[in-house]
TrEMBL record:
<dbReference type="InterPro" id="IPR013154">
    <property type="entry name" value="ADH-like_N"/>
</dbReference>
<dbReference type="GO" id="GO:0016491">
    <property type="term" value="F:oxidoreductase activity"/>
</dbReference>
<dbReference type="Pfam" id="PF13602">
    <property type="entry name" value="ADH_zinc_N_2"/>
</dbReference>
<protein>
    <submittedName>
        <fullName>NAD(P)-dependent alcohol dehydrogenase</fullName>
    </submittedName>
</protein>
<dbReference type="Pfam" id="PF08240">
    <property type="entry name" value="ADH_N"/>
</dbReference>
<dbReference type="InterPro" id="IPR020843">
    <property type="entry name" value="ER"/>
</dbReference>
<dbReference type="InterPro" id="IPR011032">
    <property type="entry name" value="GroES-like_sf"/>
</dbReference>
<dbReference type="InterPro" id="IPR052585">
    <property type="entry name" value="Lipid_raft_assoc_Zn_ADH"/>
</dbReference>
<dbReference type="InterPro" id="IPR036291">
    <property type="entry name" value="NAD(P)-bd_dom_sf"/>
</dbReference>
<feature type="domain" description="Enoyl reductase (ER)">
    <location>
        <begin position="10"/>
        <end position="316"/>
    </location>
</feature>
């Protein structure tokens, strides 16, 4: 099978699309013929081995995962012994946050992992939104978001932000989305109750106070945003922040027994993916696709994601020889 191989840490230019052995399923595993995946911020970090402490688990001097890619959607090609939940030909989607491996034509995963049947009528490319939704749902669960809660989402146009707006609305929250000018209409279409164009309006000067603030792009600061929080309000970020401040602050608040700032680790399971399937079926969760690339264009896909200018997700089609940009 064809796969995008990275044998060392470094930039996108060192990725090689080559032939490797097609995986075979072991007991309790399925092999999936992939029809769509993504190139994400996580992939970019793993490719370069950054932040450095990540290498303690990912491989100190070279990556253990030679083929990256977390999101996947495709059809079951083969099943291992003892697999009863899936059959060849089933359309499935989900995440591979431990093995990675989705930047290839086939992927082998345990059936107990975060995957589910793809709802009828949902295209493969529209199903690879799970990594962004995974992070967003983890934070919303940690917050305990419910009906009537007021949440401000800074950076509501990326993979995590677009998912967070939709998932928060599905939970009955009142959502204020902070985006740039070109994403104002998108945030409204996703269901945000109020949209702040940070290029025209200072969101930090708002009179309103929020139960929760989610920095979905790692560019806000707790010290700036805390005046927007209610007395029992909480702040969370999806990135380390300047000087890794979100890690240190999370540790400090934990030590003093406060939940004022949270930096929860994402956790995925089949139940979460099944929830995403249900929301997709109901039209409450949809993918926002920026561009599509073929597997042999993966270097260009990485370079684009690393500009930090993408809207929603960047699709990689392992089947197509070439892709095309989708506005």
């Amino acid at each position: 099978m064809r796969a995008a191989l990275s044998r060392r840490y470094g930039g996108p230019e060192q990725i090689e699309v080559t032939q490797i052995e097609t995986p075979r399923p072991g007991p309790g595993e399925v092999v999936i013929k992939l029809h769509a995946t993504t190139v994400s911020r996580t992939d970019c970090g793993m490719l370069r081995g950054y932040p450095w402490f990540m290498r303690l688990s990912a491989g100190l001097f070279a990556p253990r995962a030679k083929v990256l890619g977390v999101d996947f959607a495709g059809t079951v090609a083969a099943i291992g012994e003892g697999v009863g939940a899936y059959a060849p030909g089933d359309r499935v989607f989900g995440l591979s946050p431990e093995r990675f491996g989705a930047h290839a034509e086939y992927l082998c995963l345990p059936v107990t992992g975060p995957m589910a049947l793809l709802p009828e009528g949902i295209e493969f490319a529209d199903a690879v939104l799970c990594e962004g939704a995974w992070y967003a749902e983890t934070y919303l669960q940690d917050f305990g978001i419910g009906p009537g809660d007021r949440i401000l989402i800074y950076g509501a146009s990326g993979a995590i932000g677009t998912a967070a707006v939709q998932l928060a609305k599905a939970r009955g929250a009142e959502v204020t989305a902070v985006v740039g000018t070109r994403h104002v209409d998108l945030a409204r279409e996703l269901g945000a109750d109020r949209v702040i164009d940070y290029q025209k309006e200072a969101y930090l000067a708002l009179d309103e106070r929020f139960n929760f603030i989610l920095d979905a792009v790692g560019k806000a600061s707790y010290f700036q945003c805390r005046k927007l929080l209610l007395p029992d309000g909480r702040f969370a970020a999806t990135d380390l922040g300047a000087g890794w401040q979100n890690i240190w602050l999370s540790l400090w608040f934990g030590l003093i027994g406060s939940t004022r700032l949270r930096f929860p680790m994402p956790r995925a399971n089949p139940v979460m993916i099944a929830r995403f399937a249900s929301l997709m079926r109901a039209g409450q969760l949809k993918a926002v696709i920026d561009r599509c690339y073929g597997l042999n264009e993966i270097v260009a896909a990485y370079r684009y994601v690393e500009t930090a200018q993408k809207t929603g997700i960047v699709i990689l089609d392992p089947v197509a020889q070439t892709g095309g940009e989708t506005p």
